[in-house]
Amino acid sequence: MAKELLAVRLVLDAPPEKVAAALDKALLHGDPGSLQKEDLPMPDPILLEWQEFIRQDCTFSSEALRHGAKDVERHSCSLGLRPLCRGDKASPLPLQPFDDFAFEVNLAKRAASRIRVLGRWTSSFEDDSAHGFFLKVEVPFGPEYLQRIQLSQLCEVKRSSVGSELTRRLLCDDFLQQTRHEDMKDSTVAIARLHSFMIEIEARAWAICHGFALIESWRGLREDYPWALKSAENAVAAYRFGSGHSGPAQKEVWPLFDTGRAQSLSEGLFEMLPAVCNKRMELQGALQEGNVEVESFASLLDRICRRADSCADIFRRFVDLGSGRGMAVFTAHALFPFRSCVGFEISPEYNESARLLAQWYVKEGFANGMHVLPDLMFIQGDVLTEDWSDASVVFANCVTWPSTLVAAVARKALRLRPGAVMISGKRLPSEAAVMRGFDFRGEACLGDWTPYAVELWVYQRIIISEFVDIKYQNI
After folding, report:
1. CATH class of the domain at 259-461
2. What are the residue ranges spanned by the domains of the chain?
3. N or C terminus of the chain: which is more exposed, having fewer CB within 10 Å?
4. How many other C-beta atoms can be found within 10 angstroms of the C-beta atom of residue 181?
């Protein structure tokens, strides 16, 4: 039994049987695939999310993003799935006790790493079980790479609602335990951060090599190691605006909601806003006004809800914390089959304008024939005292909220059911309980308070055991 430190979960548009076969080829035969290049391909933007960012004139450079990743990649080595580029070579090693397979990967102009497969388990994928491996990876370290450290890793694939999930888990072995309280500039922390980043980049390059389209990339942190948290946050932030955190599956028809209806709703709400409020309220601090754009927010909800597992019951209830004029609630209610949509707003002025808009919303036929009571759709209340634990999707446009309020909401979000999703305008705090309770990825959405896309963090509620069962008692 071993504790899990961090996890990277890639959702792939490919059958799990095909991904498992490629995984077997890489880890049982030392053949992760090859690329006729000198370096790993850095992930290109996935168009649908990238378009959310470039719909307005902005100066963000995808080339700068990829250049930074390549600079990191030059100092890394193989962790087991890295495709072989020009000049690289993989060779089998003599087996030691408990080895299923062992091989060494020599990268051109870099030191070699050694991968030992110490355990494996198979699955028919007829249930929720996984097909995977337990690895020990020796990587070079120190001056002239004369020292070696050992990293323990689980690598497994399982079926998902849109294809398969490839998960790589870094375990808290002896070396990583020593880094828990080290300074961020310490050399051991630097090597740990490097490989915690490359465990994702390598897997993404491997997926590209085998033609597995990447749909989503999730990060999870299970222990409060400062360097691991920073590494995970940087990985998500660096790719938030369009390199694989959310993209389309090939078999998906995009989008699933009615775009014409979304446009009509957006235009109607925009026209009605002046009628329900004399002017844009100039409130300060946490109550500053900011409304999401209907079509952009609908695309975000579409990306999130279509990939949810059936057990998550994702259309159970939509809740907007700090709902303002109600744009997010109207979008969720009009365009998606949520059984309940509600917004909580502490400002009486904002809440009253949302209720007035709700009357227009019903009159214009956007309620889909459902009986809508504005007083129940928009509730004046405190997000910390109201009960939203049964929500399946929670939105908190908390860009202006103080950190203390965000932290309190994050702790309350731990009451959400497994599979529930929270969309946050700010990163949730790095408290151990919060980190263990969620996987997270980046997103983007347009709002009326800025000409640029707004960066968002998407958190998926998970339940994990304290220890990872690595299947074999003798490991």
Report:
1. alpha beta
2. 4-238, 259-461
3. N
4. 10
Radius of gyration of the chain (CA): 24
Q: Is the peptide bond before 337 cis (omega within 30 degrees of 0)?
A: no
Signed CA dihedral, 326, 330, 332, 338: sign only = positive
Neighbours of 33 (CB within 10 A): 18
Q: Which residue has the tokens 């609602």?
A: 161
Q: How many Å apart are CA 41 and CA 315, to the nearest integer?
A: 37
Instruction: Please report where in the chains the tokens 């915690």 appear, as a residue.
Output: 196
Judged by average pLDDT, the poorest of 161-175, 373-387, 400-414 is 161-175
- Angle CA 433–439–442, to nearest 5: 125
The confidence band for 226, taking pLDDT boundaries of 50, 70 and 90, is confident
Structure tokens at 172: 């808290």
Query: Which among 461, 451, 460 is positioned nearest to 60, based on CA atoms?
Result: 451
Helix (H, G, I), strand (E, B) or coil at 204: helix
H or E element at residue 459: strand 453-461
Please list, in sequence order, all residues whose beta carbon lies within 8 angstroms of the beta carbon of residue 119, skipping any fewer than 6 positions away: 98, 100, 133, 134, 470, 471, 472, 475
- List pLDDT tens digits, range 170-185: 998 878 888 887 776 7
CB-CB neighbours of 1 under 10 Å = 10
Per DSSP, what are the bridge partners of residue 133? Answer: 120, 155
